[in-house]
TrEMBL record, chain A:
Transmembrane segments: 85-104, 156-175, 207-226, 246-270, 282-302
Gene Ontology CC: one annotated term: plasma membrane
Predominant subcellular localization, coarse grouping: membrane
Protein name: Inner-membrane translocator
Classification lineage: Bacteria, Pseudomonadati, Pseudomonadota, Alphaproteobacteria, Acetobacterales
Location relative to the cell: Cell membrane
Species of origin: Teichococcus rhizosphaerae
Pfam family membership, one: BPD_transp_2
Organism superkingdom: Bacteria
Annotated PANTHER family: ABC TRANSPORTER ATP-BINDING PROTEIN, HIGH-AFFINITY BRANCHED-CHAIN AMINO ACID TRANSPORT SYSTEM PERMEASE
Keywords: Cell membrane, Membrane, Transmembrane, Transmembrane helix
Cross-referenced InterPro entries: ABC_transp_permease, LivM-like
Membrane association type: Multi-pass membrane protein
UniProtKB/TrEMBL annotation, chain B:
Listed Pfam families: ABC_tran, BCA_ABC_TP_C
Protein name as it appears in the record: ABC transporter ATP-binding protein
GO molecular function, one term: ATP binding
Gene source species: Teichococcus rhizosphaerae
Keyword Transport: yes
Record-linked InterPro entries: AAA+_ATPase, ABC_AA/LPS_Transport, ABC_transporter-like_ATP-bd, BCA_ABC_TP_C, P-loop_NTPase
Keyword Transport tagged: yes
Stored SUPFAM superfamilies: P-loop containing nucleoside triphosphate hydrolases
UniProtKB/TrEMBL annotation, chain C:
Source species of the chain: Teichococcus rhizosphaerae
Topology relative to the membrane: Multi-pass membrane protein
Leader peptide range in chain numbering: none
The protein's name in its UniProt record: Branched-chain amino acid ABC transporter permease
Localization of this protein: Cell membrane
GO annotations of cellular component type: plasma membrane
GO BP annotations, alphabetical order: amino acid transport
Family: Belongs to the binding-protein-dependent transport system permease family. LivHM subfamily.
Pfam families: BPD_transp_2 (PF02653)
């Protein structure tokens, strides 16, 4: 309620415009690239619900995303690429995984939570890596059927981009409503003053469980579509290093802003794609950018942008208010 | 008629230090009980045990006729067994209004809702405005808790508790650090809000306790020295020796 | 019988390595409340230094002090900037900063030392096997166990039994008081960080004979060390010892008993353990309320 509606409506309109224009302007490669940014960005945004609102730093988010990706790919291999089937299978699997993690994080916090989620995520990775008959092991699953919706095949870059864009937008609105709803406020309260929240009758474990389910559902929806960008899914989509990458993206973009997640995923993937074309040292670049942001812009680019804007606005207003 | 809160034989140690031993106490509906005792007597620890933030080593706590020993703090609060903390514990980044709404939503059973958020917010808003009006803090509703004065923060802390419509309110030194006038104002808010709420009040200011409480319980070194009317306690030799000393003369 | 003993010794040698690495982490965590995810980088740096040293023909036993010094130096540089500014910041910010630095260190090392797997040329004195109950056991692992016990003991004596350790612990409890005694706590904290980094490098040097050195090892080791410290309950010396034993034995014996699903079993067991004891094995008595 603190934000001015305009500050929310304007970026949303800009985002819609970009979504509408991109298919006209960008080529096939870039559309696929944008789709990847949007899907990963959606997963990172769901991570922001946990980290930004709840202060729950998890290193197991890739397990939710990757579980959904595998479930969706397996469903498609056996039953065909119907969009709703794929989304349902992936999101459902992610919700199951999230329920497991939600139970796990009910009572731990700080480093314990970090390590616990890491361990659970790695169990998921081990399963994906070793259960060859079902997951294809280290090779992953190839040759997925393309997504379809009734008579339409959704395998062109434009279709994939629009699909990802629609999903990202819906997920953003969903996450926003979560943050503004009582549950989102309770999650913030549980981060700020857990004892006071318990004394107010809020069950911290229940808050955390629901937050994890919400985040898992959103990450799962994004993960379900992810394999269909390249018709491939591999174990690295479950690995903890993807979880760490998501945290990097989140921090670059800005913790707590939700939309910063997309910014962060765009910057990270752009660095990865474009810098790696020139030098092998792209990870060095990512590391440097990341450290600089932590040092200089602890609230990330999104925080820096709005903070700078809001800050200068507030400065103008207060100067005017002074006699 | 059974009491609202019944504590029997509570014992609690931290390591080798025995902080509570054999505390038995009852609070009936609507009464105001003062809990006094020197620093380190175990008053706060007793609150922690009663509200579930610490688990007792021995004894039982019954609230509204049912044992609550195994319930987590949140569950006890939801049943109307509500406390405040010795240090004002507010949400520094939230506004006063949002903080009260947090409590009000929980009272309405909507604290964890996702869907239908707008209706929830509207429903809690009415309750919040009433509390703000009662307390005279309406002007500050939009301010961040961190920006309120210390006295206002303590009142805000109390209002959060009141927003839960408690049956029993445990107040841990709500008036510490406040001026006489501020303290009277705060206690006035409690009384005016709902006279049926039972209260246990910890305070070091003897005048406040003796003026506001129906009964007084005195703790010393983890034991309950005496419970009784203010006059009886004032005259008790053991209490004088342990605590009041020359203060009461 | 022999087999069981050999496996137990295997587990012990792994535990010794985990203990040394974990102690480096837990020392800064418990004494300075600083989470250092760049510790895996110090470890790997020590491994590379040791591999190069052992290949150079210089006296072999100097490889270990050399690794200690190299990692300690890296630690000293990072301590000046930017670690020092983050000691009082929340854990989340420390985690982010040091993770970012670990990414940078990892890529710099990949640049400098290449991407291949480097195995050290062990000196003759540490090569070969000994026979225990007719079962061969690598001599180097016995050396590791000895080094782990000796260094662990030394560190414990240093922190728990010397004046320096006492001042340090006092500084942790109340920095202000110690400063009024005329002791510069900044130097004190810097020294602890350098010690921790050096210890990381030393563990890397010792571990190279068992795990070799390659890009990515830093992260693997970091995670195991973190798990060790966390399972141990964050920070207490005894907790880290216990954590190292638990993790070392869990990983070794899950490989013996469930070769197919070794890590699944071991990770699940550790996760289950953390579910049952959300604050680890030996939790320092924290007063929350
Ligand atoms: N969580 C804890 N761990 C260890 N010791 C504790 C803990 N809580 C309280 N104590 C000790 O128990 C004793 C009683 O403390 P308590 O806070 O209950 O006293 P009190 O009567 O509320 O005192 P005050 O008037 O100063 O608030 C004190 O000696 C205190 O140090
Ligand atoms: Mg007290």
């Amino acid at each position: 309620m603190r934000d001015i509606p305009l500050s929310r409506a304007a970026p949303l309109a800009a985002a819609l415009l970009a979504l509408a224009l991109a298919p006209l302007l960008a080529g096939a490669f870039h559309l696929r690239f944008l789709a990847e940014i949007l899907l990963l960005g959606t997963a990172v945004m769901s991570l922001d619900l946990l980290v930004g609102l709840g202060g729950l730093v998890t290193l197991g988010h890739a397990a939710l995303f990757g579980t959904a990706a595998y479930a969706a790919a397996i469903a498609a291999l056996h039953l065909g690429g119907n969009l709703f089937l794929v989304l349902g299978a992936g999101t459902g699997a992610a919700l199951l995984m999230a329920a497991l993690m939600g139970v796990a994080i009910m009572r731990s916090s700080h480093l314990f939570l970090l390590i616990l989620t890491l361990l659970l995520g790695q169990v998921a990775w081990e399963v994906a890596f070793h259960w060859r008959e079902v997951t294809g092991g280290a090779d992953g699953l190839r040759g997925l059927p393309p997504l379809s919706l009734g008579p339409w095949r959704l395998d062109g870059p434009r279709a994939l981009f629009l699909l990802s864009g629609g999903l990202a937008l819906a997920a953003y609105l969903l996450a926003r409503s979560f943050a503004d709803a009582p549950i989102g406020r309770a999650l913030v309260g549980a981060r700020e003053q857990p004892l006071r929240m318990s004394a107010l009758g809020y069950s911290i474990p229940r808050i955390r469980f629901r937050a994890m389910l919400a985040a898992g559902g959103i990450a799962g929806a994004a993960g379900s579509l992810y394999p269909f960008l390249n018709l491939y899914v591999g174990p690295q989509s479950v690995h903890w290093s993807l979880s760490a990458t998501m945290i990097i993206m989140l921090v670059i973009g800005g913790v707590g802003s939700l939309w910063g997640a997309f910014l962060g995923s765009a910057i990270y993937l752009a660095l990865q794609t474009y810098v790696s074309a020139y030098t092998d040292r792209w990870q060095l670049f990512v590391g440097l950018v990341f450290v600089l942001i932590v040092l200089l812009l602890p609230r990330g680019l999104a925080g820096g942008l709005t903070g700078g804007l809001a800050g200068s606005l507030a400065g103008v207003l207060s100067r005017r208010g002074r006699p | 008629m059974s009491a609202l809160l019944e504590i029997s034989g509570i014992g609690k140690s931290f390591g080798a230090v025995r902080v509570l031993s054999g505390i038995s106490l009852a609070v009936s509906e609507g009464e105001t009980l003062g809990l006094i005792g020197p620093n380190g007597a175990g008053k706060t620890t007793l609150f922690n045990v009663v509200t579930g933030f610490l688990r007792a080593d021995a004894g039982q706590v019954r609230f509204a006729g049912a044992p609550v020993d195994r319930l987590p703090p949140a569950e006890r609060a939801a049943r109307g067994l509500v406390r405040t903390f010795q240090k004002a514990m507010v949400f520094p980044a939230l506004s006063l209004r949002e903080s009260l709404a947090m409590a009000a939503r929980q009272r309405a059973g909507q604290g964890l809702r996702w869907l239908g958020a707008r209706a929830c917010h509207q429903e809690s808003a009415a309750r919040v405005e009433r509390l703000l009006a009662e307390s005279g803090l309406a002007r500050h509703g939009g301010e961040r808790m961190a920006d309120l004065s210390y006295g206002e923060q303590r009142i805000a802390d109390l209002l959060m508790a009141l927003a839960l419509e408690p049956r029993l309110l445990l107040l841990d030194e709500p008036t510490a650090g406040l001026s006489q006038a501020e303290a009277e104002r705060l206690l006035g808010i409690v009384r005016r809000h709902d006279a049926r709420t039972a209260i246990v009040l910890i305070a070091h200011d003897i005048d406040i306790v003796f003026n506001h409480c129906d009964r007084i319980a005195v703790m010393h070194l983890g034991q309950l020295l005496r419970t009784g009317t203010p006059q009886a306690v004032r005259q008790d030799a053991a209490v004088r020796a342990a605590y009041l000393g020359s203060l009461a003369d | 019988m022999g087999y069981a003993i050999v496996q137990t010794l295997n587990a012990l040698s792994f535990s010794a390595l985990l203990l040394l690495t974990g102690l480096g982490l837990s020392v800064v965590l418990s004494l300075m409340n600083f989470v250092n995810l760049a510790h895996g980088g110090f470890y790997l740096l020590g491994s590379y230094v040791a591999v190069l040293w052992l290949g150079s023909g210089a006296p072999w036993w100097l490889a270990f002090p050399a690794a200690f010094l190299a990692a300690g130096l890296a630690g000293a540089v990072l301590e000046r900037f930017p670690f020092r500014r983050f000691y009082a910041r929340p854990h989340l910010m420390q985690v982010l900063l040091t993770y970012g630095l670990s990414v940078i260190m990892a890529d710099l090392m990949r640049w400098g030392f290449g991407a291949q797997i480097l195995t050290p040329e062990l000196p003759a004195a540490l090569q070969g096997v000994v026979f225990l109950f007719d079962m061969p056991f690598p001599l180097y692992r016995l050396f590791l166990i000895g080094a782990g016990v000796a260094l662990g003991l030394l560190l414990w004596l240093l922190l728990d039994r010397t004046l320096w350790g006492a001042v340090l612990r006092a500084a942790v409890t109340d920095r202000g008081i110690v400063e009024t005694l005329g002791i510069d706590t900044r130097h004190l904290f810097a020294a602890v960080l350098v010690l921790s980094a050096g210890l990381g490098g030393l563990s890397g040097a010792l571990g190279a004979g068992m795990l070799a050195a390659y890009p990515g090892l830093d992260e693997e080791v970091l995670i195991l060390a973190l798990v060790t410290v966390v399972v141990g309950g964050l920070g207490s010396f005894g907790g880290t010892v216990a954590g190292a034993l638990v993790v070392g034995f869990a990983l070794t014996f899950s490989k013996v008993w469930f070769p197919e699903f070794a890590n699944v079993v071991a990770f699940s067991a550790m996760a289950g353990f953390l579910l049952l004891r959300p604050n680890g094995l030996i939790a320092p008595p924290l007063r929350q309320i």
